[in-house]
Design brief:
Blueprint: E1 3-19, E2 25-32, H1 41-52, E3 59-71
Antiparallel strand pairs: 1-2, 1-3
């Protein structure tokens, strides 16, 4: 039976970087590595939104990107 083993997680914060000359939105991002496996959604959301306040760009949203190994 195969199992999934957690390897790492990254928190990504997205910002509004303005508009291009042809009207497309510029989306900027910042990644925060070494997110704990057991970090709750509420704790991660609070941490990433607090970190987003340090930026000069308006906050759009955040996501957790997880990497895992599939073991046999």
């Amino acid at each position: 039976m195969a199992t999934i083993e957690f390897r790492s997680a990254v928190g990504k914060v997205y910002f509004d970087g303005g508009m291009t000359d042809d009207g497309k939105m510029i989306r900027k991002s910042k990644s925060y590595r070494n997110i704990a496996e057991g970090a709750t959604a509420d704790n991660l959301h609070n941490a990433l939104t607090q970190l987003a306040q340090l930026s000069e760009y308006p906050f759009i949203g955040a996501e957790r990107v997880e990497t895992a190994d599939i073991m046999n």
